[in-house]
User: Fold these one by one.
Assistant:
Number 1:
Amino acid sequence: MLSINLITVGKLKESYLRDACLEYQKRLQGFCRLNIIELNECRLPDNPSEKEIKAALSAEGKAISDLLIGNNYFNITMCIEGKQLSSEELAEKIEKIPAYGKSTLNIVVGSSFGIAEEVKAMSDLRLSMSVMTFPHQLARVMLLEQLYRAFRINNGGKYHK
């Protein structure tokens, strides 16, 4: 059974988003071992300078990078310049991970300012959800839903239809 680490910067603040995540975590139990790792977001002033943002991303990147080092890991970084995949293409990618000799899928969601370049460099896949802009905290719910959909696709379930 594939292990999945959803590595996020920041915590979900809204109860309705936490509830949605819990629902998908429950649904995913039969398909994978899911672990959500919430890292602390660096505090920034209301109007941070580029230098302050870069320092925050670097600090967050160090914490993330430590979690991505391993021979059995397939790392996906969520970033705006990443590749867009259909649900079927994501399902196919996930299904092939064990064939690459990997037993753990790490998916990284950075802060609202993004992800440090050094983390992106450790990725096997840079993935973008859309060219549209979504609330940052909604990304976790959307990812969990797409993971559930991918496993249902790969197992011939009706959920996807």
Number 2:
Amino acid sequence: MDMNGKKLRVAFNSPVILGFTGLCLIALILDYVTKGYVNTHFFSVYRSSLVNPLTYVRLFGHVVGHAGMDHFLGNSMLILVVGPLLEEKYGSYNILFIILTTALGTGIVHMLCFPRSALLGASGVVFAFIMLSSFTCVRDGEIPLTFILVTALYIGGQVYEGLFVSSNVSNLTHILGGLVGAMLGYVMHKYKMNRY
């Protein structure tokens, strides 16, 4: 009961974000059950024959695959915090478009630039959402200081780590995801592509 005596109910407030997170969880469970088979064949992107139909599945599917529970939780927490606010502002179709555009862009670049490694995870989508969120308070003729700070901290940090830190993290994917979020945020703001 709320303060007015009405019954509280659970609201399915963000179908794309909840659906995407659910797909990531299902992919993670399937990966555990199949001992890595589904990640290798469906939820990782790597250079493969363009004749193979799974190549095109992997171009999009790699964003739902995760290397383990920590990887999944790290990405999902940020998506579940930022995503519903963005879906409320921009609408479900625009958010789905951002996820698919980020997946396709990062997948293609990874196939071209890193032929001997596989990429999986939603971190590119996370960075797209982070950059997109900095556009939520934009007014015409202004560049928000928050956008400048987010760009400097997140993208600058990824450039630094990519150049000077040795890890399994795909910094290029983070940068590309951030660029997708920034560009689409600019376009959606310019053409008033929010749900209102």
Number 3:
Amino acid sequence: MTDQSELILINLQGTDRPGLTSQISKVLSAHKVEILDIGQSVIHNDLSLGLLIRMTDKAEDSSSILKDLLFTAYNIGLTIKFRPIPREDYDVWVSQQGKARNIITLMAHKLDGRHIAEVTRIVCEQGLNIDKIVRLTGRRPLNDAKDANDLSVVEFSVRGTPADKNKLKTDFIEISKQCDVDIAFQADNIFRRNRRLVCLDMDSTIIQTEVIDELARRAGVYDEVAAITASAMRGEIDFKQSFERRIALLKGLDVSVMKEIADSLPLTDGAERLFKTLKKSGYKTAILSGGFTYFGNYLKQKLDIDYVFANELEVKDGKLTGRHVGDIVDGAKKAELLKLLAFKEDIHLQQCIAVGDGANDLPMIQEAGLGIAFHAKPKVKATAQHAISLNGLDTILYLIGFHDREIND
């Protein structure tokens, strides 16, 4: 038997207020109309409501349904439009379900037309279709006063598989540099919505310094140590070798200096907000660092971090010996520790987030479901899945999908 049902797309617009959707749906309920799809959004109190309905009654009865909808919309102050949808168009729409979905996150201090224009151009070139755009940050005041959380973040939900994912990443990196915006592209899957463990490097990630450089300043060997540090972070020399060379230069330094440095460690913007929100939301957090356990444990107490793995400096008679105790935490060790923690917490690696800035962070960044190069060296940024180069550490929360209302107390 041929299906004689009618498909109608209904669009309603007007000033938002409570009860509008309820009034429209009452009419549909009275006529026993099937709703095939529904979507609603509100921008600055302006409501846009769309419904795709199926009317299975006889053709002559459809006019009374539309008449009742028109009358109700007029009485509640909404404009309404009807558009018949051909059955073949609906069948094509149904056949498209199951396509890959991805999330694009834009983060800028002031979002403007060029950000949206450039990103949507790339989306179009890659053959992707935008299904939804959502603002994750709160409403911005018009005054120019800035606070610590002065950020505009929007999230695009896009459907389809990129034609060239490597080019998409390269294009987004270029747009980021040109337009002062951080852009992330990630699969919208069950793992993205269920991250549980966040592992971070310490030096130049959680804190805005390299602790070994601060120790070197006190020991009077800063220039020598800084040169080795920079070379190691660029991936030019082996981390273990560079680590041993650097700590050897600290021989004889009094351990009291370590407390002085710890008490003045400069936290990265957004660090406290990040860890507070993660703790409140039940995430586990870890420091996986090529730095030193003394400073990692200091931050563990200050930021309520769950795990710390770093390098232990050997001390004798109240002074550093220039040697270390135990295994060196290098890049390979960080990746191993990430997997160990995932096993301990009984979670999938795809539920892990890894964040760092140097070449020795790449192994764990590549193991994690969400790997982030944070204010990183060019080599790291080019290799990592995602990069945050302009904004604070708390922007990680937006990549997970947090809204400001879920972050701010």
Number 4:
Amino acid sequence: MAKDTLIADDVWEQNRESFVRTTEVWGQIELRYCKLDDDEGKIVLTKYSDFCPYTLDVDVYKEKRRAFTVEEWIDVVLGAVDYNPAGYKTFKARMGMCKRLLPFIEKNVNLIELAPKSTGKSYLYGQVSKNVWAVSTGTVSRAQLFYNVAKKRYGLVACHDCVILDEVNKMTFPNPSELQGALQGYLENRSVRIDAIQFTSDSGFVISGNIPCDSMDIESNMMKYLPSVFNESALIDRFHGFIEGWDLPRLLEEQKASSWNLNTEYFTSIMHLMRSDGSYRRIVDDLIEVGKDADIRHLEAVKRLTTGFLKLLFPHVQSVDDVDRDEFKKYCLDPAIHMRTIIWKQLCFMDREYRKTSMPELHVKE
């Protein structure tokens, strides 16, 4: 609002809370040019109506989930991100779409997705949420992602819930070792230091690319199709899970949402708010029984992914007593273990040292 614009008293009183928010305010306005007592003309805001048709109440959202079965709720989730649930008929396809949403709802989730063309990943990562930023093609540098020393400006990772390098195969990296070092440190401990600047962030990180159809095999080295900056086992180890994008159908007309669904902006805003809720991780810690000599990085990856699934599919749970053990295993723990197991298998192809490790034995406590 220009400094010479006034707000009518009644408009201010009715919309005070909206106007003083630190976030953007979008609405329909009416402006009038008025002569005041001092004969100076002023622009006056005389009417305002908020574009937002809803209020964000996470508790209400959680409570409403109780009215649905988990399969019905997956339909709600798919519809809320502009996809038609009827177009995703298999369990793998439906869960594949849910896997893509994990960085939207859980902090610092780092994923790799390789998929054929036209499975909808660019739209979901790039268009659905205002809190997520997708970089598609072009040149990617440390300055762009983390901090630009010359311009004294923070990069994408500092400002978003998740950053996606979409179609990473088409990108160029002017200083691979510099970017690799920054990424490796950030993905490990959520912080990065560049010159005298150090900052932490909750942003997740996703690399997404296409892969030849005859190479879509978790029992072979798929990391060779990534740019050289990612051909470092220590860096790949810091990604929590792998999404088999080939489990998702090619995007056709019937995959597009075509009926009433949960408002997309509302849903993604709810996911943004739920990222800060640590109660779900405590439930996961209480529910999972860990075997001896569990590898810490594997264990943390599985727990973080499991927590994301729990938030996404069972937002109404408040304690371990609310959790159906069989559903937790099927929809949360088992998919998380599978996603991390693929990363481990890829590491074994990249570096023989990882063959000395194994995935931890994890069970759901009765």
